[in-house]
Amino acid sequence: MFEYLKGPVALLGTDYAVIDINGVGFKIFTSYSSIGQVAIGEITTFYTFMSVKEDDISLYGFVSREELNAFNMLLSVNGVGPKMAIGILSSMSSYDFCVSVSSGDYKMLCKVKGVGPKLAQRIVLELKDKIKKDLAVDTAESSVIIQKSVNTDVTNDAVEALMYLGHTAQSAKEAVGNVYKDGMGLEELIKEALKSTV
Q1: 97 versus 17: which is more confidently predicted?
Q2: Which residues are CB-contacts of 76 (< 8 A; sequence separation ≥ 6)?
Q3: Average pLDDT of 86-92?
Q4: Which of 29, 92, 161, 195 has its CA 20 to 30 A from that of 36?
Q5: How far is CA 191 from CA 78, 121, 180, 197, in A?
Q6: Is the CB of residue 128 less than 8 Å from the CB of residue 76?
Q7: Confidence of residue 148 (pLDDT cuts 50, 70, 90)
Q8: With bands split at pLDDT 50, 70 and 90, how would you rate the model's confidence at 4?
Q9: Which phi and psi (to 5°) does residue 79 adopt?
Q10: What is the pLDDT of residue 171?
């Protein structure tokens, strides 16, 4: 229903922010990462998701589209609700989440409170398939997408990492091309590319 909400931050809690829009305070549940990037009184944009249940209507939002995309991917997994998805993204960045899923590192997800081995494995298995379908790549290609260690083609891995996080192929290529310098590692390149798209 709401694509995003933009306004001054009226209040900050441990897991939420209140945005004042024309005198109406919208409570938005969010991650520690997003809370850490805003300040009271600062005009901020939160990209949002509305959860509607019989007994509850809640807004969830993030200061970056990448984090919202990771949140939506988590919600597509059976057994993961909004609060758990927020918990996962509060425990790791959307980049680290993407890397752990794409590399099959379910143990990293197990470090999150409330996420056991079975659920962590389910998240990895279900999202790996979803990501392959979204990017329309075959099994041979997807097996080398995003690795923790830098391979011989860092820029291609960085482009595909940005695509995992919701960028189009064109915008990902442009972002990586704009910030790439010789000798850059994969993690540094992705972080710099993400900064350039904010």
Answers
A1: 17
A2: 126, 127, 130
A3: 90
A4: 161
A5: 30, 26, 11, 10
A6: no
A7: very low
A8: very high
A9: 100, -5
A10: 81
Reading the block at residue 16, the tokens are: 């939420």
How far is Cα 105 from Cα 101, in angstroms, rounded to an integer?
A: 6
Q: What is the 3-state secondary structure (H, E, C) of the chain?
A: CCCEEEEEEEEECCCEEEEEECCEEEEEECCHHHHCCCCCCCEEEEEEEEEEECCEEEEEEECCHHHHHHHHHHHCCCCCCHHHHHHHHHHCCHHHHHHHHHCCCHHHHHCCCCCCHHHHHHHHHHHHHHHHHHHCCCHHHHCCCCCCCCCCCHHHHHHHHHHHCCCCHHHHHHHHHHHCCCCCCHHHHHHHHHHHCC
Which amino acid belongs to residue 88?
Answer: I
Q: Which tokens in the block code for residue 169?
A: 């192929």
Amino acid at 25: G
Residue length, the chain? 198
Q: How far is CA 23 from CA 13, 20, 40, in A?
A: 19, 6, 15
Tell me how far apart the alpha carbons of residues 101 and 112 are, in angstroms, rounded to a whole number. Answer: 14
With 0.85 as the threshold, say if the pTM is over it.
Answer: no
